[in-house]
Amino acid sequence: MTRRSIGIIVNGVTGRMGYRQHLVRSLLAIRDAGGLPLADGTTVWPHLVLVGRSETKLREIAQRHGLDDWTTDLSAALARDDVEIYFDAQVTQQREKAIRAAIEAGKHIYTEKPLAEDTAAALDLARAARAAGVRTGVVQDKLFLPGLRKLKRLLDGGFFGEVLSVRGEFGYWVFEGDWQPAQRPSWNYRAEDGGGIVVDMFPHWHYVLAELFGEVRAVSATTATHVPRRVDEAGRPYQATADDAAYAVFELDGGVIAQLNSSWAVRVFRDELVEFQVDGTEGSAVAGLRRCRVQHRAVTPKPVWNPDLPVTEDFRSQWSEVPDNEDFDNGFKVQWEAFLRHVVAGESFRWDFLAGARGVQLAELGLLSAREGRRVEVPELSL
Ligand SMILES: NC(=O)c1ccc[n+]([C@@H]2O[C@H](COP(=O)([O-])OP(=O)(O)OC[C@H]3O[C@@H](n4cnc5c(N)ncnc54)[C@H](O)[C@@H]3O)[C@@H](O)[C@H]2O)c1
């Protein structure tokens, strides 16, 4: 068995996503499993080069996980011949210039979403990467969640007949930071620092809708900043300048209407932090992060509207659980493995910078729709 080491820069490894999902749950998990096996018997071994701004934090993370390759000098890391992949989980605003440097250094690039702050910049990165002949990928983790995988299975099996509509609820209460610390970084609530729920969530909604139901052709969005004052990590009050809720309708290719609410100012009365209800002519499903429940046409009850009587049916109990039927691994890890196979073995990988640019475009047009109070068509993007 041959072992093929591949040097990967992990930039932003001290952050929430960089540390937990990408370093620990994906790259270190691949190493813990002995590397990533390829079809030809080769094992891919990620050699990690941790990059960040704080020496103290990097050293501490490296020591905790028995790693010894880290630096605060991104240019020096990019200049190394033994590094083939640049990965970016920095705050969004720092991403574009780092990716540009990585393209110039000839590295393959994998990155957190959103790819860039606006569509023009995202497309420009996609074109530059193509011209440089480097491979690209953008995180689209929700596609690999067990709940959505089961939903995809239902779609592929024709369970719904004709899909009519999708309604999604995403969100939870993000504490203001005064009497309890906030559970998300404060930059998320400042537009000037790249924050906002539209910029954060619409890239996800784009790939979920496009991959499962059809490309988004138009968006109508209303946004709000429900909590205008928050307190940051250092205990300083600040003005929340970014949207913390978005109420949007997406019109999809083929006629499906998707209505998705996203909010950091909502208290959860659901079974999971995100849930999508899909209604079709033959059946309906409700999918969350992990679970997926269905109700077929043949077993659909016939409620009759009568506010004078108490509810007689337990509606939730009328749905059946879709079985797992397989082991679902961490979604971030599954996508990392696909990207590594793409780089090392040339396997196909469709979640590239152009796909990422489409997510950025939907966020940009969603904000435009909210600003101008109108429905906005979403033009096809190409390189
Ligand atoms: N795929 C997902 O589900 C998902 C979820 C949350 C966030 N994200 C994305 O991941 C990225 C990081 O988000 P996070 O929640 O981990 O943020 P975070 O604030 O926890 O981490 C940000 C990282 O960027 C680094 N950084 C570099 N330059 C910086 C600067 N000038 N100011 C502040 N930090 C700087 C920080 O040191 C840290 O390592 C964002 O682009 C976000 O959109 C993706």
Automatic annotation (TrEMBL):
<feature type="domain" description="GFO/IDH/MocA-like oxidoreductase">
    <location>
        <begin position="149"/>
        <end position="285"/>
    </location>
</feature>
<dbReference type="InterPro" id="IPR000683">
    <property type="entry name" value="Gfo/Idh/MocA-like_OxRdtase_N"/>
</dbReference>
<keyword id="KW-0560">Oxidoreductase</keyword>
<dbReference type="Pfam" id="PF01408">
    <property type="entry name" value="GFO_IDH_MocA"/>
</dbReference>
<dbReference type="Pfam" id="PF22725">
    <property type="entry name" value="GFO_IDH_MocA_C3"/>
</dbReference>
<dbReference type="InterPro" id="IPR055170">
    <property type="entry name" value="GFO_IDH_MocA-like_dom"/>
</dbReference>
<dbReference type="InterPro" id="IPR050463">
    <property type="entry name" value="Gfo/Idh/MocA_oxidrdct_glycsds"/>
</dbReference>
<feature type="domain" description="Gfo/Idh/MocA-like oxidoreductase N-terminal">
    <location>
        <begin position="49"/>
        <end position="138"/>
    </location>
</feature>
<dbReference type="InterPro" id="IPR036291">
    <property type="entry name" value="NAD(P)-bd_dom_sf"/>
</dbReference>
<protein>
    <submittedName>
        <fullName>Gfo/Idh/MocA family oxidoreductase</fullName>
    </submittedName>
</protein>
